[in-house]
Design goal:
about 375 residues; Chorismate synthase, AroC fold; four-stranded antiparallel β-sheet; 12 helices
């Protein structure tokens, strides 16, 4: 057991003093498969097939999803790093087969010449394909669009399973819910404990998770109208993390501050255009505000009077609920914005592009996944300090 951090109780000796967690994904949205590898995960973490399956069932949820959820039934194949239902300390290698590849093999085959009908010469405004095509001199946007797709986050979700399972054993739990759909906001209470907050969410539709059933019903009508109009809707969300110890992260170096890692991870998710810890925007509009007081709650036991900081101060966790808020723009597939044909240079409209109206639940799964990995990293760093 690691001798530095009684909270961690990692099932290893000094293993993590020398190996830090890092991961890599590869694969195109309609290619043969998504693959990923993560190293630095300690041995002895229990993992089952059901852990992956439950996560992917949840990832398919969401009112306003496109038809791809019916096409893809994701299943993880473990290639390395898990033996007998436990991580073995080696790099973990995973694969998710893209079942839709068969319909796209004529233009996504690794060796055969791509079919002409599979070319995408007109970039989609709001997507990555124009910038990527210009960067590499492509006139066909397919390679960029396939890799920049939000489907890549399916592999990041899979790679997060060992981290999620380890955090669960330490009482660290996640809850995610919608704050606003478009410009219609819900009434959510961010101060509730895990059990109370979870019970409120369970009373409402898991496809539109929030604490406010009345607002969720109005969102449902908004989504139906957007579907009818061929539009998409932006979403603002919160992921709350419960049970974190005080002092994760560091104040000593900029790149060891916990919000440095968390913000980079969340902002790397396609479509996310903003993120804050706690109530940053609200605090920025106030003056003379009284910050979270520090109070004695017993013999050498302290508590905070509030949690305006959202669970992080000076790069470190405060012991309160970590509140991560993030904002996804309307998905570009339904934007109907004009573009240009990169082969002819003429003005053109992008071809029809299947798109979700909004994706709050898959977004929440992606955010929880990257947060779980970063929090496990922080725990390992804390153990080695």
């Amino acid at each position: 057991m690691c001798c530095f951090c009684p909270f961690c109780s990692l099932p290893t000796t000094h293993y993590q003093l020398f190996v830090m967690i890092r991961y890599l994904t590869a694969g195109e949205s309609h290619g043969p498969a998504l693959v990923g590898i993560i190293e630095g995960v300690p041995p002895g973490i229990k993992v089952s097939e059901d852990d992956f399956e439950k996560l992917f069932v949840r990832r398919k949820l969401g009112y306003g999803r496109s038809g791809r959820t019916k096409i893809e039934t994701d299943k993880v194949t473990v290639l390395a790093g898990i033996t007998g239902g436990q991580t073995n300390g080696g790099p973990i290698a995973l694969m998710i087969e893209n079942r839709d590849y068969k319909a796209h093999a004529s233009h996504m085959h690794p060796f055969n010449e791509p079919s002409l009908e599979g070319r995408i010469p007109v970039p989609l405004p709001g997507h990555a394909d124009f910038q990527g095509a210009m960067k590499f001199g492509f006139s066909d946007c397919r390679s960029v669009r396939e890799r920049a797709s939000g489907r890549e986050t399916a592999m990041r979700a899979a790679l997060s399973v060992p981290a999620r399972n380890y955090l669960e054993t330490k009482g660290i739990k996640f809850l995610s819910f919608i704050d606003a759909l478009g410009d219609v906001s819900a009434q959510n209470d961010y101060s509730l404990g895990f059990e109370e907050a979870e019970a409120l969410l369970q009373l409402n539709d898991e496809n539109l998770p929030c604490q406010d059933a009345k607002t969720a019903e109005s969102w449902r009508k908004m989504i139906e109208q957007a579907q009818e109009n061929g539009e998409s809707i932006g979403v603002s969300m919160t992921t709350a993390v419960y049970g974190l110890p005080l002092g994760l992260g560091s104040y000593t170096h900029y790149d060891r501050r916990l919000e440095y890692a968390l913000s980079g991870a969340v902002m790397s998710i396609p479509g996310v255009k903003g993120m804050e810890i706690g109530f940053g925007r609200d605090l920025a509009s106030k003056s003379g505000i009284k910050y979270d007081s520090i109070e004695l709650a017993g013999d050498a036991i302290y508590k905070r009077g509030s949690n305006l900081s959202g669970g992080i101060e000076g790069g470190m966790t405060t012991g309160e609920i970590l509140i991560v808020r993030y904002f996804m723009k309307p998905l570009p597939g339904n934007s109907r914005a004009s573009s240009v044909n990169l082969e002819t240079g003429e003005k053109a409209m992008p071809a029809f592009y299947r798109s979700d109206v909004c994706v709050p639940v898959p977004l929440a799964v992606a955010v929880e996944s990257v947060l779980a990995i970063e929090i496990l990293k922080a725990l390992l760093c804390r153990a080695s300090e």
